Predict the 3D structure of the following.
Amino acid sequence: MKNEKIKEILKKTEKISRISFLEGLLKRKAQMKEKELNKHKSVSLKLSIFLGLFAWLFIGVMLKNTILSAGIALIIAIIIFVLLIQFPIAKKKAYSKRVEADLPLFLLRLATEIKIGKSFPKAINDSCKEEGFASKEFKIILNDMQKGASFQEALQEMNERIDSVNIRRACSNLSNLSIQGTKDVSGLKKLSQELLLKQRIESKEFSGKMVIYALVFIAVSAIVPAMFQSFILIGSYFMKLSFTAQQIFFICVILFPLIDLGILMMIDSKTPLFLKQ
């Protein structure tokens, strides 16, 4: 009886020490993230001030107006600072979307590997043979496990790296499967089917919008330049329009192609990531 009580006490103390260790680890990670964020803000502020001063000098020479150039430079500095602060967040979101785009097919492969009786590390390793962002992230999980982290801890690290609700759902499902030790992968299959259905709906919506995008692009790239040139030729006779050769060259050769490029970039930003792969 005493031995059993001692074993229970040792298990409890081991569990408590492990929990306290994990809590301390999480606190240290939070402190490190806060330090990195403060450092990034400081660097962004210094860079934006430097570029703002440079813009003030350049615009002041061009406009020869100190007050107006200072106001424009201040606005430029604020915009640069905001962009520098938001860049890591936007980068993380873009990467999360890429991982989420690969997730449905990866989960289907993983569910098949688990169903036939493979262990989680073996199933993940075999599922990662196909290239993709989801495979890349699960390879990181395997590396963390080889370094001594548990499967749940590696999944938690993945949740912190990626800002995605669906990734969290997949990690929660996998964590429950590993704890329970069951081979019932119906939850994983259901999640992957939901994600595939969501992608199918997004694909249909984009196909409908693509017709409008194509019409806008054709109008801006072909019809508008032709109408502009006709307007200049006719308007120069009746409306006393005065365009220099340099202005017409700038509008036709630089401005219109830039507008076309902007529309193409807009279409690319609206295109779902799984259609680009």
User: Anything to note?
Assistant: The two ends are 63 Å apart (CA to CA). The chain has two domains: 2-184, 198-276. The chain is about 90% helix and 0% strand.
